[in-house]
Give the backbone structure.
Amino acid sequence: MGSVFGGWYYRIQSDTDTLAIIPAYHKNENNQFCSIQMITKENSWYVSFPYEYLRQNDFNMKIGLNYFSEDGITLNLESKNIKAFGKLKFGPFTHIKYDIMGPFHYIPYMECYHNIRSMKHSVNGSIKINQKVYNFRDAIGYIEGDRGRSFPKHYAWTQCSFPNGSLVLSVADIPFVLLNFTGTIAIVMWHGREYRFATYLGAKVMHIKSGEVTIQQGRWRLSAKLLEQLGRPLLAPVDGDMVRTIHEHVICKAYYHFQVNGKTIFDFTTDKAAFEYEYPF
């Protein structure tokens, strides 16, 4: 049995509350299990389950009494450190035009494959985590997924939803055959139009330093900068096992700048960004 992991990342955000939920499965030569991670601004939790608790059919996933589908999420989660119960209902997804990996989707043995399920959709419902209730009424959701062997050793990722649009940007050091290269993928949805950056489309990583990332593709240029350190620990896969600790800012202050043909399309600072920055500062 080879090393493999796979899972989905659900981010839900209202004016007052933000929550991310990550159901996943993990296999390697020594072990196989599944897990659910949850993260808020204040805390993060990790719960593992026997692999036999997993049922999966394409996007639909069931881990024990916890259900994840295109319609929504039902949580019945109880462990030593967390009790989480509730339901969330999703509105129609905003799909991207085609697989974010492009031709890399068909290349075998890559370290990690990425998937974007919805750039933006409505969320309604509530989740009670321990003693706090997170209410979501006409909230905003985002969903992406990963599968493969391991997360990249060095990477930066950010996601943000905002009036008239949403974006996701990822830069990573990618091992490929006997080489390594720095690759990027990004989607900017703006007034119903999709702007796609990707290494396979000629996008270049111009800058990675001090929590700031800039990429350029032709006459398009996108920058993102992490402006505060509020990361909470999450476990990430290495050869299918959850032995690495990363830090995610599930809601934080960040700056974004998007240009087309030298013209600024948007330029703003927000306190509702998500950010992971796993490069040396």
Observations:
- DSSP finds no helices and 21 strands in the chain.
